[in-house]
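From the pipeline queue, job 12 of 40. The input is one protein chain; the requested action is below.

Action: predict structure.
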Amino acid sequence: MIEPTREDLSVARDLVTLYRRLSGTAAQSADVSVVTDLLAARLDAPVWIVNDKLTVIVASGTDSTPAEATERVQARATALRWDRILQVASDTGSAVRSPELADGATVVVAPITVDLDVAAYLMTVEQKRHGSGDFALLATEHAATVCGVMLSRERALAAAAGRARDDLVEALLSGRAADADELARWARHLGLDTSVPTRVMLVRATSGGSRGAVRHRHDRVNEVVEHFCQSRGRGVVTAARDDGVVVLLPDDPPGGPTAQALGEECLAYCRDLFPGTDLAVGMSGVRSGAAHLSRAYDEARRTVDAATRLRRHGTVVTFDGLGIHRLLLQVADVDELRRFADDVLGPLRRYDQLHGSQLVETLAAFFEDGPGLRRMADRLHVHPNTVTYRLRRITEIADLDLDHHRDRLSTQVALTILEILGSEVIGDSDD
C-alpha cells in the first residue's frame, strides 16, 4: 500500500475545510457570489459563472466587470473547442479540465445543475500544478454542486412566491373577500396603490395555427408582455391567465407613462418581436379602490372580446371608447341580443343566403355613408340604381321604414350586435 505523503494529507485537509465552508453557505440565505468569492480566494485565481455562450454572469477574484470578463473568457476560448468541453461537463455531470493553453494554464469547468438541467457552468483558471493534484478540479466541482443547490432553492422559493402572488391577483380580480378592507390588504401585499385612479388592461394573443405552436408562442408573448410592463411602468402588477396577461396599473402615475401610453408602447414592442402574432388589448375604465378591481377586470375582458370580434388588433381599445358597444356588452344574456338581431335582420340575412344578394351589406352602408346614393354605390361597387332597388327590397322584406327614427335605431343596434357577435347570430333557416 502506498502511504500518503505529508503534502497529500495537507491537500486533503485543505479540501475538507473548503468543502465544509462551501457547504455551509448552502444553509444560509446567501447568493452564489459568496461561493465564487470563497473559491477564488482559496485558489488565488479568477472564478466565473458562465452560460453556454461563455457570457459571464458572476465574476470573482478579478477587478473586471462581467462584460470585461466575458471578453477575456471568450478570447481564451478561441484556442479551445469550448462547445466540446462544455458538452463533456454537461454529459458527465462532473468537472473537466481543458488542454493546456499557451501560457501553460488550464481551465476547469464544472456544470451547475438545477432540477436535472444544466443552468450554467462554474469556471476557473488553473496554473501549472506543482504537486497540487486535482485540488482545483475537485473544489470547483463541489462549489458547482453548492451553487446548484442554492439556485434550486431560489427557484422553488420564487415559484412559491409566484403562486402566492397569482392567488392574490386572482382574489382581487374575482372580488373574493369578506370585505373591502381585506381586498385593500391584498392589494398592498402586491404593492398596488388602489387609492389612486387605476385601470385594468388585458393583453391577449389571438393568432391561429397548430395548437402546440400557438400555445408555445402565446406563452412567450405573455412572458414578454409581463416583463415589459413591469420594467417600463410604475406601480404595475401583472399576472398571466388563461385569457391573456392582466395588468393592473395607475392611470396616470408620476414619472411614468400613462396606462394608455404603456399599452401602446407594449403593443409596438411586441409587434417588432412577434410580427406574425395579433394582439388584442382592452383597457377598463378608471376605478379607485380595491373593491372595484373585479368590475374593472370584467370591463377589460369584455373590451378584449369586442376588439377580437371587431378585428381591432394592434391598438388599445378602451371600455369608455366602445360607444354603443359598451352598452351592449353590459347585457348579460347574449341569447337575448341574438334574438333581437334576428328579429330585425333575420329576414334580410336569410334572403341574402337564399339569393346571393347583399341586402345586409347595403343596409350597413346606408348608415355608414348616409342616404347619398352615389357614396353608397361607390362603397358597394354597384350602380346607384342597384342601390335604390336594394333599399326598396329591404323595406319590403324586413318591413322597415328607414325614415322612421325607431326603425332606424333598431336597425343600427341590430347591425352593431351582428358586428360584435358575428354572423352566427342570425338564423340560417327559413321561418
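Job complete. The longest helix spans residues 135-174.
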